[in-house]
Specification:
Number of helices: 3
Strand order of the largest sheet: 33-39-38-35-36
Oligomer: single chain
CATH superfamily of one domain: Immunoglobulins
CATH topology of one domain: Immunoglobulin-like
CATH class of one domain: Mainly Beta
Strand content: 25-35%
Distance between the termini: 18 Å
Structural class: mainly beta
Helix content: under 10%
Shape: flat
């Protein structure tokens, strides 16, 4: 028991020694950086494969049973299993209807502890005759199909009546799209009509062109015992020749669609046919195509752009309706959203559905509105009353020309009749055109008289301009030469200061008979500069110490103009008055005044300004004046006393103390335990104190005060830093050493036993 306690004591003292010598440090462990691991989403799965959506910077593994050790291990996916473009990883060669465990980790790591585990189950094994194929690797599927030996009749001739004992040789390889020969003769009851179309009527048209301009050999005619060449390879996107298309039935029905299987059904064969059905002609899965695109839209019909070897369906209630080769969908509802998908469908290939395309039918045509009404007219312009939601057009030869929404028609001929119609406005992509209203007949006015001379100014100020009045004239104002505002008065008020305005005039005529005269030339005039004189260098209602020297600068509005022009104005400082006694004037810049606050009290500086205008290349006074003032006051000065002490006592107050001129400040000194005041220095000179206090009297400048302390017993104070903890450290170190030696000795005795 004693030995255990000695060990514990030794350990504790060692910690104290380490803590006092070096201090304790807190370790901060930051969370490992990296992406948050989320459960992967299943992209697709079959009875033999599972494809997962990958996350950036992560790698994925499948749990398998090691054949040697009979234990479960993680098999990490190889680079060939990843699809970087689609961000997926695929695990193949799995068992049907079986649970598998998956995991993931950060790339570059070897950690396999505490990995997240996700369990997924493969699909139930499908019937071999099913049209749905497992989503195996595209390359694997292609290789399987290219290497497979199809059963007889894997290449049914489209539009041909099966011949008796027509059996292709065993070595015939499947073509992705079987190409019948150009000169194959259709049999009775199997020939589509020449004018049939591939849309609503699914019979191929006469002029069907081969895809990718692939032309079958000209001389390949069907034999009674048709034998494809031995080395025939699968053709990609080979289009059957004109008038030939594989049919489910020998006679194409109205809504014939491409078949999911290239093997003719038993119903297509004659009773005496010895054609052997192929062993495996299930279409090969391919990637889904892009979403379909819109060709045209009406209120009841949507037409999609069609692509060779694709078919289309409308989605309703989340399900694909009947597939069709035609891109035309009729009998739809107006202003209704519809969704469409596409898929690749050939005799040898079939894809999943594309992403849906959402299309909205247009609104039906609106009824014709009432005839429009005249708002105003001139000799070259007609404006009708515009109604929100309507647009307007002139009729030419009984037909609308160009539609607009403002009802304004310009560049017309004077004294000419025009017919104007209106309709409900519509967006071409959202609605059908509206019906057209009855026309409104309007005759333009006669041409205008000659223009008068340009207006002349008679007076102006900061907010108004007055023109010279003339009989039978009206006037207009503008800031940019457009949007003229006409008035009969020659006085324009409510204007902005220091702003240029343009003015025109015209003669007034009977509005019912003719146009007003042509407009006069433009005249430009400018309002006065608004007064905003200021005084810099003095703070308004500011407070300054007595004997402060101030310099004030007068600034007038517009004084910074470097390139003045005609009608420009400015406010120039002219006079100043200080303390109601001092008065002076300026002849030119600089507009400064300097003075000293020689007494305590209130002051006021007033500056007088005059408005000048730029005339004939120089500034001239107008006689218009304004004043600007600033008020302030002077007070007795304030000084700063800096009080400090050494670390063996305190001084109060301490720091920087602001005091008024002529005031007194008392300081108190408080020594630490076993210490007393040594000396007090005021402005560097030692002074006498009483009762540990000292007063600085009649302060008229900044002061400093410093107090030092000494031990009462007369011992010398260490000149270096505080070493009061040295003894403690020494005792701890010595104690730890003794205990350590005792423990070592006890351990040795124990070992000797």
């Amino acid at each position: 028991m004693m030995k255990a306690m000695k060990k514990m004591l030794a350990f504790t003292l060692a910690l104290v020694l380490i803590g006092t010598s070096f201090g304790f440090q807190t370790l901060q462990v930051s969370a490992a950086e990296g992406n948050e691991v989320k459960e992967p989403q299943v992209v697709s799965k079959t009875d033999t494969s599972i494809t997962l959506q990958t996350q950036e910077n992560l790698e994925y593994a499948l749990q398998i049973k090691d054949e040697k050790t009979e234990s479960l291990v993680w098999k990490w996916a190889e680079s060939t299993q990843y699809n970087l473009e689609k961000q997926t990883v695929t695990f193949q060669d799995l068992k049907a209807d079986t649970d598998y465990k998956f995991t993931c980790r950060k790339k570059g790591t070897q950690e396999e502890e505490e990995l997240p585990i996700f369990t997924l189950r493969t699909d139930v094994q499908k019937n071999q005759d099913s049209s749905e194929q497992p989503e195996t690797s595209k390359e694997e599927q292609k290789n399987q199909q290219e290497s497979a030996t199809p059963a007889p009749d894997t290449q049914p001739p489209a539009e041909e009546k099966p011949q008796e004992e027509i059996t292709p040789p065993a070595d015939t390889k499947p073509q992705e799209e079987t190409t019948p020969q150009n000169d194959s003769k259709p049999q009775e009851e199997t020939t589509p009509q020449n004018d049939s179309k591939p849309q609503e009527e699914t019979t191929p048209p006469t002029d069907t062109k081969p895809q990718e301009e692939t032309t079958p050999p000209a001389d390949n005619k069907p034999q009674e015992e048709t034998t494809p060449p031995a080395d025939t390879k699968p053709q990609e996107e080979t289009t059957p020749p004109s008038d030939t298309k594989p049919q489910e039935e020998t006679t194409p029905p109205t809504d014939t669609k491409p078949q999911e299987e290239t093997t003719p059904s038993t119903e297509e064969e004659p009773e005496n046919s010895t054609t052997t059905p192929p062993a495996d002609v299930t279409p090969k899965p391919v990637d889904a195509p892009s979403a379909p695109t819109v060709a045209s839209v009406t209120d009841t019909e949507i037409t999609l752009n069609t692509v060779t070897n694709q078919e289309y369906a409308m989605i309703q209630d989340g399900k694909d309706l009947a597939w069709q080769v035609s891109g035309v969908f009729k009998n739809l509802k107006p202003s209704t959203d519809y969704s469409f998908v596409a898929r690749i469908k050939t005799d040898t290939e079939i894809s999943e559905s594309s992403k849906p395309l959402k299309v909205r039918t247009k609104a039906s045509s609106a009824k014709a509105p009432d005839a429009t009404q005249l708002f105003e007219k001139t000799d070259t312009r007609i404006q009708v009353k515009s109604v929100k939601g309507q647009e307007y057009s002139l009729l030419k030869d009984g037909n609308p020309t160009v539609w607009n929404t403002n009802g304004v028609f310009e560049n017309l001929s004077p004294g000419t009749e025009y017919q104007i119609v209106t309709r409900v406005s519509y967006l071409e992509e959202e609605a059908m055109p509206s019906e057209i209203s009855k026309p409104l007949a309007v005759t333009t006015k006669l041409a205008a008289a000659k223009a008068p001379e340009a207006p002349q100014i008679s007076g102006r100020n900061e907010t108004s301009i007055t023109l010279q009045a003339q009989k039978s004239l009206e006037y207009a104002i503008s800031t940019d030469g457009s949007a003229w505002k006409w008035q009969s008065s020659n006085v324009f008020s409510g204007l902005k200061a220091n702003t240029s305005y343009q003015f025109i005039s015209r003669e007034v005529f009977d509005a019912d008979k003719a146009m007003p005269s042509k407009e006069s030339p433009v005249a430009t005039f400018k309002t006065y500069m608004a007064f905003q004189g200021s005084i810099d260098g003095i703070k308004a209602d500011g407070t300054y110490y007595r004997d402060t020297k101030l310099t004030a600068t007068a600034v007038g509005t517009g004084m910074n103009q470097t390139s003045p022009g005609t009608w420009d104005t400015r406010w120039v400082p002219k006079t100043w008055t200080w303390d109601t006694k001092n008065y002076s004037s300026w002849k030119s810049a600089p507009y400064d005044v300097t003075f000293v606050l020689d007494k305590v009290g209130d002051y006021c500086l007033t500056v007088g300004y005059e408005l000048e205008e730029y005339v004939s290349g120089s500034w001239k006074g107008t006689g218009l004046t304004r004043t600007s003032s600033v008020s302030f006051k002077a007070i007795a000065p304030v000084y700063t006393i800096t009080a400090s002490s050494d670390k063996y006592g305190k001084i109060s107050p301490s720091g920087n103390i602001e005091v008024k001129e002529g005031s007194n400040t008392e300081f108190t000194f408080t020594p630490n335990k076993d210490y007393k005041v040594s000396k007090v220095l005021v402005n560097g000179k030692q002074v006498s104190i009483k009762n540990n206090k000292y007063t600085i009297s009649n302060i008229k400048s900044g002061q400093t005060i410093f107090v030092s302390f000494e031990r009462i017993d007369g011992r010398q104070i260490p000149k270096t830093g505080d070493e009061s903890q040295i003894i403690l450290y020494a005792v701890l170190v010595l104690s730890a050493a003794v205990v350590f030696l005792l423990v070592v000795r006890a351990q040795r005795k124990k070992n000797h036993r």
